Amino acid sequence: MAKSNAGLRPSNGSTFSMLGADTNIVGNIEASADLHIDGRIEGDITCNALVQGEASEIVGAVKAETVRIAGTVRGTIAAREVVVLRTAKIDGDVAYDALTIEQGARLDGRLSPSGGHMPPAFGAADEAQVALEAAE
């Protein structure tokens, strides 16, 4: 059950979408909106800002400007600003410009200060997508 809350607009004017705890999605999500995810996602997520609830699980890569993780993530995270809350469990690498990790959070992976650049795994995927689109 995905719903867009046009009435809840962040100060930058972008929209906000919420995926509730009863949501289970298999597939990639691309959104220009800010996302709040309380359900389970099996696939890659690309959005402006991501807020993950405590009971949420993401199995796949996350790419966003800002990420706030409170649940479980099994995959790579790449963002300019990453906040890992004490309830978070991350099994994967994290690329960031700014990083905050609360005491009690669990992380099994590498931390890479990216200096504003996405990690090679994302860069290669983006270049492959551009090549596919150009070929069409």
Automatic annotation (TrEMBL):
Domain of life (superkingdom): Bacteria
Pfam families: Bactofilin
Family as reported in the entry's similarity comment: Belongs to the bactofilin family.
This protein's name: Cell shape determination protein CcmA
Species of origin: Novosphingobium pentaromativorans US6-1
Lineage: Bacteria, Pseudomonadati, Pseudomonadota, Alphaproteobacteria, Sphingomonadales
